[in-house]
Design goal:
three-stranded antiparallel beta sheet, about 160 residues
C-alpha cells in the first residue's frame, strides 16, 4: 500500500512475505516524508521487498498492523517480479470485508465502519467481488462500487 498524504508526506504498508501479515511501518509522532520513496532515493515503492530493520509492534484496534521503525535503518532489497508480487497479494487476500476487518464491521450508509477501538485490522486485500458500478465522480476520479455479497460500500 502506498498513499499520498498531506503535501510532502506518505503512508506505506506491505505484506510480510513469510507470515502474510499486513505491516504498516510508522514513526510515532512523526509523518513519513516522501523522500522515503524509491524515486526520491528511499526504499519504498509498490512491489519492492524492503528490510525494515528492528521494529516494535505498536498497533491497537483497529490499526493492529502498526510497527514502529527507524526510517534510516531500512533498505530496499529488490523489486519483486510480477508473478511473485501477484502471489503475495492473492495469498493475503480474503473473500469478504468482514474476513479482512473483523466481525464488528457493519455498513452505515455508503461506508463500512466499526465502533472506535474495535476491529481486527485497518488494512486488507479483498478478492474481487461483484462490480456494481464504475464511474467518474464530480472530482474526475475513477470510482468502482464493489460488493462482497454482504456489503456494498460506495463513495461519490
Amino acid at each position: 500500500h502506498l498513499t499520498r498524504m498531506a503535501p510532502g508526506y506518505i503512508c506505506v504498508a506491505g505484506i510480510d512475505p513469510e507470515s502474510r501479515d499486513q505491516i504498516r511501518p510508522v514513526t510515532p509522532g512523526r509523518r513519513l516524508p516522501r523522500e522515503l520513496l524509491v524515486g526520491e532515493g528511499g526504499p519504498f515503492e509498490i512491489g519492492c521487498l524492503v528490510e525494515l530493520g528492528p521494529t516494535q509492534h505498536v498497533g491497537q484496534a483497529p490499526e493492529h498492523e502498526d510497527h514502529s521503525f527507524e526510517p534510516d535503518r531500512t533498505r530496499r532489497v529488490r523489486q519483486l517480479n510480477p508473478d511473485d508480487f501477484w502471489a503475495l497479494l492473492v495469498g493475503s487476500a480474503n473473500a469478504s470485508l468482514r474476513e479482512n476487518f473483523g466481525q464488528e464491521l457493519y455498513q452505515q450508509q455508503s461506508s463500512c465502519v466499526f465502533e472506535e477501538n474495535t476491529g481486527d485490522a485497518s488494512l486488507g486485500h479483498l478478492r474481487a467481488g461483484t462490480l456494481q458500478d464504475l464511474y467518474i465522480n464530480d472530482w474526475d476520479k475513477l470510482r468502482a462500487v464493489i460488493s462482497d455479497d454482504i456489503f456494498t460500500p460506495h463513495s461519490t
